[in-house]
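Weekly modeling sync, notes
Attendees: S.R. (lead), two postdocs, one rotation student

Agenda item 3: backlog of single-chain predictions. S.R. asked that every request posted to the team notebook include the full sequence so nobody has to chase files. The rotation student volunteered to paste the first one in as an example of the format we agreed on. Action items at the bottom.

Example entry:
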Amino acid sequence: MLDPAGLRNAAWRFGYDVEPIAVGAGEIRFPYNYRPASAHATPAVTTAHQIGLGMIARARDADDIVALVTLLRDDFTRIVVLLDGDASEADSLSARMPWVEVAHHPLDGDFAGQRNRLQDMMQTRWVLQIDTDERPDDALIAAIGWLAAAADRDGLRSLGLPRRNLVDGVQSASYPDIQYRLNRSDIRFAGRVHERPVVPFVESSLALAGALEHRLDGERVRERTRIYEAMSTGAGRAQDEALLLAPFDPIAVR
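Predicted structure, as returned to the notebook:
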């Protein structure tokens, strides 16, 4: 009894590609409505892709950047790092991983602006953006090609990915913590803090096959709350800190 968009969300969650039944030319393939949907489902398979990986990063995290990019270098067609630093720091980092494009621009407290600069640099149709303390898990790596292909078929331009927050090595209650990080490169972000893509609702969807893993320590969580609040009143979001510092309870989300 799932509606069309809900059926697609569920199918993707369990690794199935779906094809709607009896959809006319020019109609939305999986509309957001309350009518029960029907579709053909087939197990999705890993699909070759030309998706770019983009990373906004701080110069002081150079060692983490190199380790992460080295781990993912064969999984993406192009990798770009946009450094919150100066030219000498970018040149130093580039020398350590010459297969990656490294650019620099001050963050200036504007996360959306930095993500938009990175979008413009990517030169790929689809972009996965991550931070230095995040990484796509194996399931997301395996699914990302067919997810983007399915999104293109369905007229989608922005996909929301679950993020699994691990605070001091323990999964936190802040889950699934959806992050719209897999986007067409023409998508723009808005919001200096807690930035989100600007896209019509019907051109976005959840993509629950796999997750981003986000590793933090408790003190960093508390520091982040203070920093965000200083950047924009209310952006500290004390409720987010509380969720991040509480352990995940799988029974509570059933």
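Discussion: group reviewed the output briefly. The chain has a mean pLDDT of 93.
Action items: rotation student to repeat for the remaining queue; S.R. to check formatting next week.
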